[in-house]
Amino acid sequence: MTSIRQLFSLQELDLVLDKIQTEKSGAEQELNARLALAKMESDLESEKDKLAETQSSHQTFRQESETLKERVPVLEERIYSGDINTERELESIEQEAGHARKQLDDMEMRMLELTVAADSFRARITELETELEVQKIAWETRHAELSDIVNRLSSEESTILAQRTELASSVDQVELQKYDLLRKKKGGTAVAKVERGLCQGCRMSFQPNICKRSGRVDRRSFVTVAAECFGLVDCIHFNELPFNYPFKTR
Q1: For residue 183, what pLDDT is reported?
Q2: Of 168, 185, 208, which residue is a domain's last?
Q3: 99 and 185: one domain?
């Protein structure tokens, strides 16, 4: 026959397990995430992509400007050669030469901007690479710490689980199922102590004759209250009385 004290002891183990498993889960998530390194690596790749795009654009403008540099002198030579016979043809060539010179000026300005941008990206890449190396060293230390934490918590978890399994085997299985359901319903606390006549879990108030530690105790009343709570109404009450639930009523 299961006592409330047994369930309270079982809950103490479960609460320790909850804490261990929460801490272990957090350490494992940090191990798997590598958040700081992952973000820095992503930023580094982004800067490298920007640099590559900038260099590609600069190369394209450079090639086009080389073509224009060759084209402009040819047009200017035609303008001043004296070989043009009509005013209309001369005007057309002058417009073409002016347009080519403007294009060349625009390209040279754009190439200058791209050169400045590329220098900025290179500086940022160097900065990120240096910082990444520092972070990798720090991560190696943190990784070792987290691995030790996970190993320690796994060992503690195994020990507590073994103790819980042993204790749970002595608990009536029907009552154990009710206890497990109540723990889920109440967010981890199924068994609550009664202190000064007040349940610390559901805040139910008990009559003094039920909660007193000595003298005559109204067992029938206490059993009724405990049985109601054991039926998942609120919680299972534990008053550390000199007798255990359930009792046989007279």
Answers
A1: 87
A2: 168
A3: no
According to the model, what pLDDT value does residue 81 have?
84
At residue 236, the pLDDT reads 60
Q: Is 232 left (phi over 0), alpha (psi -120 to 50) or beta?
A: left
Determine how β-strand 191-195 pairs with β-strand 198-199.
antiparallel
In a domain, 10, yes or no: no
In a domain, 125, yes or no: yes
pLDDT at 196: 67
Domain that holds residue 146: 20-168
Give the N- to C-terminal CA distance of the chain in Å, as an integer.
18
Question: Which of 168, 194, 228 delimits the end of a domain?
Answer: 168
- For the entire predicted model, the pTM comes to 0.54
Q: Where are the beta strands (DSSP E) in 130-203?
A: 191-195, 198-199
* The residue to which tokens 């046989």 are assigned: 248
**What is the predicted pLDDT for the residue at 188?**
82
* 35-81 and 87-168 helices, crossing angle to 10°: 170
Whether 246 contacts 171, CB under 8 Å:
no
What are all long-range contacts of 222-225, with beta carbons under 8 Å and residues at least 24 apart? 222/247, 223/247, 223/249
pLDDT value of residue 93:
86
Is position 5 within any domain?
A: no
Distances (CA, A) of 154 to 17, 33, 149, 166, 188: 10, 19, 8, 18, 21
Q: Give 10-residue mean pLDDT values along the chain (250 residues).
A: 80 95 94 84 96 96 93 87 84 90 93 96 97 92 94 97 94 88 84 70 61 36 39 49 36
Number of independent structural domains in the chain: 2
Sheet of 191-195: strand order equals 198-199, 191-195, 236-238
For residues 43 and 160, membership in a common domain is answered with yes
